[in-house]
Amino acid sequence: MKNKMKGSLMTTPRTYETLRDELASRHDDLSKRLKQIAEYALDNPNDMALETVSAIAERAAVQPSSLIRFAKAFGYTGFSEMQKVFRSHLVENGSNYKERIRSLGRDSVHQSNASSIVLDDFIDGGIAALSNLRDVISPERLEQTVDILAKADVVYLSAQRRSFPIASYLAYALAHLDKRCVLIDGNGGMFLEQARSMRKGDALLAISFKSYASDVVQLVKETKSQGIPVVSISDGVLSPLAQHSDVCLEVEEVEVHAFRSLSATMTLALTLVVALGHALDQKT
Q: Which is deepest, 9, 145, 239, 259, by most CB within 10 Å?
């Protein structure tokens, strides 16, 4: 089936991956209500696969008719046809990442806060996040990221709040690779001013997760508008960083005891450093 959209023919997504890409690429053009459903669908693919229309509508805080409109907006005859795509994804991937995390929370809820139990919870959460990283990181995107960083005259690194340690480590590691880099740390309130020396031939690597640091988001948008390559590390296709990056590497950390670790993000950073080191060796 084909659906007319913006004067061109859009093929109805038949796999979860293509549907996910469509939800991301058209997110800004959707109505407020359909945006709400798209965000719920990406955050809760198991619910979309298994629950009834009325149950999903209640959880997403929309009317059931909105779900039908949502499905038809992407070329499906109705919600049940779209739901088959989510069901296929569930069958192919077995235990969903988010469901494993919910299970972790349920297992811990009745236990005491003994230090050893807290440690076990963070270890289990880290294992789940690393396992998910293996599933969602595309080898092609990794190679594209390394290529952009290797070709850049100077790599600018941007992060704030809990993401900042990753950018700081990358600055340390790139210096040891003799790769010129600038850490935009915002010292003295000079965040955007520190980025003004960025030129064509450089590249920006930005890191931010929900709730996204506004300075980092603004910098990514401005850098992309100048035609300078942007690589981001963020938590989903609807991230404002993903929408304005040449490449976005997705990482979803686990929240344990109201804290999110950086286990998977640091693993990804180490991977980039080692892969970049190999690429630079080959160039020389």
A: 145
Distance CA 205, CA 203 (A): 7
Domain ranges of the chain: 2-93, 139-283
Q: Where on the phi/psi map is residue 237: left (φ > 0), alpha (ψ -120 to 50), or beta?
A: alpha
**Which of 248, 229, 236, 183 lies closest to 209, judged by CA?**
236
The encoded tokens of residue 166 equal 């990753």
List, as one string, the DSSP characters of 175-187: HHTT--EEEE--G
Neighbours of 25 (CB within 10 A): 11
Q: CA–CA separation, 24 vs 237, rounded Å?
A: 6
Exposure string of 152-181, with b = 16+ CB inside 10 Å and e = fewer, is bebbbbbbbebbbebbebbbebbeebebeb
Measured N-to-C along each axis, helices 64-73 and 79-93 cross at an angle, to the nearest 10 degrees, of 80
- Which pTM value belongs to this model? 0.71
pLDDT band for 142, please (50, 70, 90 cuts). very high
Domain 2-93, what architecture? Orthogonal Bundle (1.10)
Under DSSP, the state recorded for 149 is H
CATH class (in words) of the domain with range 139-283: alpha beta
Phi, psi values for residue 275, rounded to 5°: -65, -40
Query: What element of type H or E holds 279?
Result: helix 263-283
Element (H, E) at 52: none
